[in-house]
Specification:
By secondary structure, the chain is an alpha/beta fold. Helices cover 40% and strands 12% of the residues.
Length: 285
């Protein structure tokens, strides 16, 4: 299966973001803590070069806590300001304001030198589809002013949200990039639900998930479904079908239905807290 999803509206979104960046002081990129690198859009890296940046690792309740800590350390060493939080919990966002001030310290100082006081920081919230941008804004602003959903493509156009006297946020539609040079990146994006399932072969995707989990999170499938881990991924999926009562007429395992169960269990965290991106190992002084 080739992983790719770049519908026409994303081309328009890409152009709009490029134009709107002229108005922006800060880019807050929402990434998924389960794939802290794979969920970052390289197009945004190019367009936002030179802008103040914060990377928010959301959905930490679904990711491996130790892996999240390692990724936070990694980004700090890269000179990037990271912030890990539960996007649904506004209390976990309480300490984000000091980080925003830190990221925009240069802008604030320039304003003061010009005699401009209390001009709000204008921040763009960006990320791939279904990563939690609107949920982040709702929690950060303490409102329900933005529509949220559990499928990609809910946010359609530009919206400005006033957080307080210091910050205004611009929401943007979820954006992927025209081509995944590394198909494993596309695979991970599909696994977390940032592509519509109806354009994918869910059974093949589930088989790929079994392969990934047996490498990155050994023992999780056995603990959840009481099935032996096996290099025959189709046999594992059949075992899950039998354990979960996903059967066709005549008692044959319904692997298509079992694929849906497996993907839903992974995405909701019922299999466990799992991070699919391995943090790069670096030499430390």
């Amino acid at each position: 299966m080739i992983y790719q999803w770049f519908p026409g509206h994303m081309t328009k979104t890409l152009r709009q973001i490029s134009e709107q960046l002229k108005l922006i002081d800060l880019v807050i990129e929402i990434a998924d803590a389960r794939i802290p690198m794979s969920s970052r859009n390289p197009e945004l890296d190019t367009m936002a070069r030179g802008r103040s940046r914060i990377i928010v690792l959301g959905k930490i309740d679904l990711a491996d806590p130790e892996a999240t800590k390692a990724w936070m350390d990694y980004y700090r060493r890269q000179g990037i300001l990271p912030y890990a939080c539960d996007l649904r919990n506004n209390k976990s966002l309480a300490s984000l304001m000091p980080l925003i001030r830190e990221a925009c310290a240069g802008k604030i100082a320039r304003d003061r030198r010009k005699g401009i006081m209390n001009r709000p920081i204008r921040a763009m919230v960006a990320g791939i589809p279904n990563v939690g941008k609107s949920t982040f804004i709702n929690s950060f602003s303490g409102s329900r002013s933005l529509k949220t959903g559990n499928k990609p493509g809910v946010t359609k156009g530009r919206q400005w949200i006033r957080i307080n006297s210091e910050v205004e946020l611009m929401d943007t539609p979820g954006l992927l990039w025209p081509r995944f040079e590394d198909q494993t990146v596309g695979e991970k994006i599909a696994l977390i639900g940032s592509m519509p399932d109806d354009i994918l072969n869910r059974e093949e995707l589930a088989l790929n998930l079994i392969r990934v989990l047996e490498t990155t999170a050994p023992g999780k499938l056995k603990a959840r479904y009481e099935v032996p881990e096996d290099d025959n991924f189709a046999a594992v999926l059949e075992g899950i079908a039998l354990r979960r009562g996903c059967l066709k007429k005549g008692g044959e395992p319904d692997t298509e239905k079992a694929a849906g169960v497996l993907l839903d269990d992974f995405r909701s965290g019922r299999i466990g807290r799992i991070t699919l991106d391995a943090c790069p190992e670096e030499a430390h002084d």
